[in-house]
Automatic annotation (TrEMBL):
Biased composition (Basic and acidic residues): 105-115
UniProt name for this protein: Small ribosomal subunit protein uS9
Keyword Ribonucleoprotein: yes
Keywords: Ribonucleoprotein, Ribosomal protein
Gene (name only): rpsI
Length: 135
């Protein structure tokens, strides 16, 4: 490991959404985003998902200041994007506590508590009931 690499601060944080878990690492750089070893645009194909991930960086004007490396697993792409967004926001607050004031009003530091409801015994799903037959 070179002296320049050791001097570069590495910020890491975890974001979760539904069953998705994202481990985010921020390093000083040019703004490249890598998700599971793939370019950010390839992994998240739609513009909506890309904007979800970029939102905390754009809020604090840091899109080209950090390289973002993400390892994410579980759930679907929408939940993974939400987990990545939370992880990036948490890592940014570790780098500078003053950024918390900018990120908090937008809800980037809040973990979304909504989860899938569990299936109940004697039913086909969480709430659905089996078809009732009178005769």
């Amino acid at each position: 490991m070179s002296a320049a690499a050791a001097a570069t601060p590495v910020l890491s944080a975890t974001g979760r959404r539904k069953t998705a878990v994202a481990r985010v690492t921020l390093t000083e750089g040019s703004g490249t985003i890598t998700i599971n070893g793939r370019p950010f645009e390839d992994y998240l194909a739609t513009l909506q998902l890309q904007n979800t991930v970029l939102a905390p960086l754009q809020t604090v004007n840091a899109t080209n200041r950090y390289d973002v490396n993400v390892s994410v697993k579980g759930s679907g792409l929408q939940a993974q994007a939400g987990a990545i967004r939370l992880g990036i926001a948490r890592a940014l607050t570790i780098s500078d506590a003053e950024l918390r004031k900018e990120l908090k009003p937008h809800g980037f530091l809040r973990r979304d508590p909504r989860m899938k409801e569990r299936k109940k015994a004697g039913r086909p799903g969480a709430r659905k009931r089996f078809q009732f037959s009178k005769r």
